[in-house]
């Protein structure tokens, strides 16, 4: 079944897939961080911080790219509730891709912990030191991680639904850039 869905640009697809890998890696790194009290925690945190900043910067680029390169239209055969769900899930993904690194950076700032990227490169704190704010943001970061995981699962399920059940070109528009 073809609906003449156009493909995403190469830059859109590259940003999507690089961020997908980074976000999935971050979720696993985060799980590793909260499930250990060994020296691995420091190693994982050393990875977590710069990857989070990279995700934030890529998300900003992605928003700019999305505003300047409109995504292809959804298939005409999609129902109104499916269209609403598609748009809502993308808004949630973009919001979480931007918010999670900022909440993490703010949490670290409030905790008095520097954001070391690589070597001696440190980001400035974005919030004042405050144990109460740190505790609040830590909880917000955890809830955000669960929300991001849930939205990613829905996104993945929808991609498989479009690719394997509907076969409407939506999955191909993000994988190959060409629709059926």
Automatic annotation (TrEMBL):
- List the InterPro entries: Cyt_b561_bac/Ni-Hgenase (IPR011577), Cytochrome_b561_oxidase (IPR052168), Di-haem_cyt_TM (IPR016174)
Name where it's found.
Cell membrane
Provide the transmembrane region boundaries.
14-35, 47-64, 84-107, 143-164
Q: How does it sit in the membrane?
A: Multi-pass membrane protein
Cofactor(s), names only, from the UniProt record:
heme b
- Keyword field contains Electron transport: yes
Family stated for the protein in its record: Belongs to the cytochrome b561 family.
What is the protein name stated in its UniProt record? Cytochrome b561
């Amino acid at each position: 079944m073809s609906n003449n869905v156009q493909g995403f640009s190469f830059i859109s697809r590259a940003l999507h897939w690089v961020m997908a890998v980074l976000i999935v890696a971050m979720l696993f790194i985060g799980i590793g961080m909260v499930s250990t009290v060994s020296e691995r925690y420091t190693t994982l945190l050393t990875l977590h911080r710069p990857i989070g900043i990279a995700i934030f910067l890529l998300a900003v680029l992605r928003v700019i790219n999305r505003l300047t390169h409109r995504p292809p239209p959804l298939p005409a055969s999609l129902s109104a509730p499916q269209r609403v769900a598609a748009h809502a899930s993308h808004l949630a993904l973009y919001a979480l891709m931007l918010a999670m690194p900022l909440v993490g950076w703010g949490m670290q700032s409030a905790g008095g912990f520097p954001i070391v990227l690589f070597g001696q490169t440190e980001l400035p704190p974005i919030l004042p030191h405050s144990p109460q704010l740190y505790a609040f943001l830590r909880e917000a970061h955890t809830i955000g991680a669960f929300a991001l995981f849930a939205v990613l699962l829905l996104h993945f399920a929808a991609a498989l639904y479009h690719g394997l059940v509907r076969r409407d070109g939506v999955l191909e528009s993000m994988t190959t850039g060409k629709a059926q």
